[in-house]
Amino acid sequence: MGTIDVHTHFVPRAWPDLATEVGPGVWPSLRVESEREAMIMLGDREFRRIGSNCWDASERLADMDADGVDLQVVSPTPVFFAYDSSGSQAAKVARIFNDLALEICEPGAGRLLPFAQVPLQDPDAACAEADRALASGHFGVEIGNHVGDRDLDDAGLVTFLQHCASSGIPVFVHPWDMPEGPRLNRWMARWLTGMPAETHLSIIALILGGVFDRVPDSLRLAFAHGGGSFAFWLGRFENAWQRRRDLIGVSEQPPSHYVDRFSVDTVVFDPDALRLLVDTLGASQVMVGSDYPYPLGEHPVGAVVDRSTFLDDAHRHAIRRGNALRFLGLDADTPTLERSSRS
Questions:
Q1: Cα distance between residue 145 and residue 174, in whole Å
Q2: Which tens digit of pLDDT belongs to each residue from 81-121?
Q3: What confidence tens digit (pLDDT) does each residue in 288-331 have?
């Protein structure tokens, strides 16, 4: 019984021209440079160089076998979210990429579990696309951690989270659209500092925005990249909640009360950082992730778990597999990995 990797991404090798299919805009396209390399473009700007492991299931499966990974959650690359477009445009984009995700994952014979994107700026359309995607074969949804200045405590976004809770749809939250500026546009600082800060901010919004007080605890919610900087700064957060209740004490309970309401992945690379996650959130709230196939991801998958000598066998198994089965709503005793808790 191998590892389940809850954090990987895909990019199709081709997709329809979005300006034609959706309407005018600065849309992503793919400049294919060889059988094994391509460049994601945003309009005329180069965004990211990628390899064929983004779309080739055979390469992906070979890499999984080499790392002892049984199952991968295969999520969109956030640049395709289209949150800055109209809801109707983003819904069309989501349908295109969600259908292509099924095609990419189909050769995996059940080992590649696609997650869908949704037009999060339009809650009704997001709920409809999530339902369509799950009925079509997706296993959950990946969302960005904010839509413009609307964080996860925005009323519309809470409506979507409530829908996912009532429908048994797991939600994976990925940071995206980090702030830019002269100090952040060098040394990949947007990724090195912006991603952790964005994720931390969104978890704070869920707590202080009262979302965890209003959304049922049946919501299966997980954050990428170890939950950002949240675990390191929980003590500061707790202190502020206690000492400045006039400004911060707006949640029903102190921040530490809510740490079992969400999970995080292991994309933190260092055993000391993983120990902090386990000590802060509990081993039951941590799942292996890799950020495959991108170069800042972990390779081999689960290496930080292997190097974490403080973990006992039970915790190691939970982090490598058991917690992900619960998050995904899969039956551990069913070889075909049927969904066990979809309502």
A1: 6
A2: 999 999 999 999 999 999 999 999 999 999 999 999 999 99
A3: 999 999 988 999 999 999 999 999 999 999 999 999 999 999 97
Q: How many Å apart are CA 60 and CA 79, to the nearest integer?
A: 21
Residue boundaries of the structural domains of the chain: 3-328
Query: What is the percent of the chain with per-residue pLDDT over 90, rounded to a whole number?
Result: 86
Give the DSSP letter string of 266-333. -TT-SHHHHHHHHHHH-GGGEE----BTSTTS-SSTTHHHHT-TT--HHHHHIIIIIHHHHHHTB-TT
**Bridge partners for 144 per DSSP:** 174
Where are the alpha helices (H) located in 29-167, listed in sequence order? 57-67, 87-105, 123-136, 155-167
Whether the predicted pLDDT of 335 surpasses 50: no
CA distance 10 to 60: 10
Distance between CA atoms of residues 331 and 113, nearest Å: 14
Q: Hey, what are 247's tokens?
A: 């400004």
Average pLDDT over every residue of 241-246: 91
Conformation bin of residue 295: beta by default, left when phi > 0, alpha when psi is -120 to 50:
alpha
The domain defined by 3-328 folds into: TIM Barrel (3.20.20)
Q: What is the DSSP letter of 193?
A: I
DSSP-based three-state secondary structure for 224: coil
Contacts of 313 by beta carbon, 8 Å cutoff, 6+ apart: none
User: 247 phi and psi, to 5 degrees?
Assistant: -110, -35
CB 216 within 8 A of CB 165: yes
Average pLDDT over residues 237-265: 94
Strands 221-223 and 263-265: parallel
Coil, strand, or helix at residue 32? strand
Strand order in the sheet with 45-51: 28-32, 37-42, 45-51
3-class DSSP state of 342: coil
